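Data card: per-record layout.
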Amino acid sequence: MPDKPPSIKQVFGVIKNIFEGVGKIFKGIGEEFIDVGEGTVVGVIDITTLFKFTFIFLGTYIGCAVYFLTNIRGCLVYYLVEVFGQILYIPVRITVWIFSLFSLNLQKPLDTFWDNMESLDQVVYKYVGFHIIHYPRNVRQKCYVCKRLKMKVMSRQAGVVKDDFSPGGRIEQILMGGINTIKDGAYQLTHPLD
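The structure for this 194-residue chain is written out next.
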C-alpha cells in the first residue's frame, strides 16, 4: 500500500519550517556581525588594559629605582645593617630547614616568636615612643617605601586576557550566540518535518 500523500496542513508546516529556518540563518548571520564586533571590543579593551598596566608597572618600578638610588646616600647604613641582620639570621633559617627535613616544623614557633616581638614593639612604641624591631617611620618612608603597581594586578589582568581568548572563554561565548541561531535555523531547514 503506497504512503498516503501529505496533507495540506503538513505541506504548509514544512514550508513554514523552511522559511523559519532560512530566517533564523539570516538572523544568526546578523547576530554574528554584532557578536564579532562585541567580541573584538572585549578583546581590544582587555588587551589595552593589560598594556596600560604594563606601562604603569614598568614606570612605577623605574620610578622607585630612581627614588631609592637618589636616597642611597642617606639609606646605605640602614641597608648594610639589614644585610648584616639577614646574614646573622641565616643559621636560624638553615636550622628550621634541616628540622623540616625530619618533619619537625619549627616555622610555626618562629612565626609566633616574631608575632610576639611585633606586639612587644607596639607596646614599647606606645609608651616610650620608639621601635625595638623596626626603623623609625621616617627611615622606612625614605629607604623602604615606594608605591608601585603590584604584580598580582598584572597577573589578574593577564588572566582576564587569557580567559578572553581561551577555548570556551568570553569571546568564544559571545561569538556562539549567532552561531547557535544559525545552527538552529540549519537544523530546522534540513529537518522540516520535525
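Known properties of this structure: The chain has a mean pLDDT of 89. The first helix runs from residue 8 to 70.

See the next section for split statistics.
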